[in-house]
Amino acid sequence: MKKTLNILLAGSLIFASCSKDFLDSAPTEQLSTDQIEEAGKQDPNVLNGYITGLYATMYTTFTALPADEDHDDFGQKGYDIYMDMLASDMVLTGLNYGWYSNVVRYIATTDYTRAEASKPWNYYYKIIMSANSAMDAIGGSEVEIPADQKDARFVMGQAKAMRAYAYFYLANLYAPEYGSGNDKILPIYTNTDQPNQPLSTTKEVYDLIISDLETAVEYLNGFNRTGKHQINKYVAEGLLAYALGARGTQADWQKVATLTNDIITNGGFPLTTKSQSAAVLDGQGLVVNGDGGFNNIATPSWMWGVDLTLASNLDLVSWWGQVDYWSYSYAAAGDPKAIDKGLYAKIPANDVRKGQFDADELMPINKFYTPEREAMGQRQIVTDYLYMRVDEMVLLNAEANANIGNEAAAIASLKKLLDLRLDNTNYLSTLSGQRLKDEIYLQTRIELWGEGKSYLALKRNKATVTRGENHLYFAGQSFKYNADQLTFPIPQVEIQNNPQIN
Hints:
- By secondary structure, the protein is mainly α.
- The protein has helices at about 20-25, 35-40, 45-55, 75-85, 100-105, 115-135, 150-175, 200-220, 235-245, 250-265, 275, 320-325, 330-335, 340-345, 390-405, 405-420, 435-445, 455-460, 490-495, and strands spanning about 90, 185, 200, 300-305, 335-340, 385-390, 465, 480.
- The chain contains 19 helices and eight strands.
- Strands 1-5 form a two-stranded antiparallel ribbon.
């Protein structure tokens, strides 16, 4: 039975900042529940600072294996790269430095001793434990908070959404199948006092994810966030739509259609425009549109992301430092990241997204770039991180409607997006059944290339991917969504340290 909380938090809990000392320690050090509760009594802003630290973990470097200081360890965007490479839509076309070589060779996913197998595990469980700490400090994750205690509900809603986000990615990366099955995949921790836990089933994990997100959607109704790094109701709805789509029952898909429609209709996020999608160059190769580059949190279509500044202290060890030719980066120095050649060939010549990539090396030099566009130019990272944009919700809406047989609505959603990318979308009216689903999946891969969503779509669609000829390894070979090569094993260190796991 759930407990009922009767507590009033100060009105400044969410919105005020806390001390520098606390923020310095929050992203990488665990505070005890007692410490948080006591600090909260002295200064209610502390709990807000703890939530801020939770978000900061998403972009802080060396959060998974601090002692190693690996240059692929920089929070969520680091694992976006892992997933894009596992799904084979992102190609590592050079090995001068070797980062991600074990991922693209599928060594990390077939050898549980590899560090790459433990990094996502450590990162997401750090998020989970931090979220649990915040929830413990206001009565625990099972507490029911009355509707009139808005500040407490806003804290709980964000913490639950972050815990669900972490479990969702763990369930993707460490389990070959979605759904409500009985495969034992992950330990579940819902408070900071639990000892080592055994593996829970896929059903149990997804039940927790969906329950947390449903509560988050309820509690965050009316939350006016101070920045896009915070999860509000619409971001929580987006995460819930992803989780329900992954589980994939007919009832789930109906809910996905409803959730995504609410985001599209009421969220206030316009679609990414044609101009924002790719650089437009003049005869001298200079950019003539100033709103492209996927580099600015102020872009209206962005639902969730973070405003990076010099104070964020990011440089080479960052997503931009791994992928962007126009930053001081591995991509420019000898480890280029490119689009799969087979996927590139499927983009029509009249599609604005074809121009996101250079025609020779297929690097995304016209999709992701700094405003200055100087090769190896940006050393200190101030271009922003994107976690979610409304275009994803339009594609998910199309996918949901296709899965529940509402094909007219699916085509309408897809057309809404593609009318901003293509000169002519009349072909959509000829699609139905599996051909329509396949087109939605293809457009998801094209639209969201490099944004960490291809892997989720691959598993959600139970698809098979074939590597193009520009891959260094396994070129021409095909891999089904549930192949061993596409799912991480539980890392050795967890097996050694958790006696509940055989």
